[in-house]
Design brief:
Length: 61
């Protein structure tokens, strides 16, 4: 659970900084692979996480 919250927090910070969502996807994917090169990044889950982070109705936006 904490891992998902960390990823959401990182995605949210990219959204607040004004980074385009498609660039944020690449940054997050590269970041997750750099943590564990053998990690299989679930792209569908990552896109869903970014979709939530970039939703203007999100808390704190």
């Amino acid at each position: 659970m904490a891992d998902g919250l960390f990823q959401y927090g990182a995605a949210r910070q990219l959204a607040i900084a004004g980074v385009p969502a498609n660039l944020a996807f690449g940054i997050m994917k590269q970041f997750l692979v750099s943590i564990d090169p053998e990690l299989a990044v679930d792209e569908y889950r990552l896109r869903a996480l970014l979709h939530r982070a970039y939703d203007p109705r999100s808390v704190g936006y």
